[in-house]
Predict the 3D structure of the following.
Amino acid sequence: MVYYLHNGSPIYCHSSHDLNSYRYITANLVVTNLCTPSELAKALGVSNRNMQRYAKTLREKGTDWFFNREEKRGDAHKLTSDMLKEAQKLIDGFYSVVDVARLLGVTEGALRYHIKKGNIKKKWKL
């Protein structure tokens, strides 16, 4: 557990692995003027810019953003699952990677990445 003290009294605590609570609590300390971003950054040994960013996010997007947002990292925004299926059909129909990319409106590199990763199976070679 991580405890935050103010004048010797505990004001917040969270699990050491809870990154969203850490971001919210540090932003809240800055927004409520209990400390400045630079003081907090120096005390925690992190970037001053991160503290400013967390505080700005709390002011603009509110508390819910820290705890109820969808995690978007790891999602391929260029190739959805439907596009991957369509690409697989075209590759199975002996279209070249360049042609498939042009037909789907994505880059050739995006398709080659998914072929290398194994999401699209290229069964033929010339």
Observations:
- The mean pLDDT is 87.
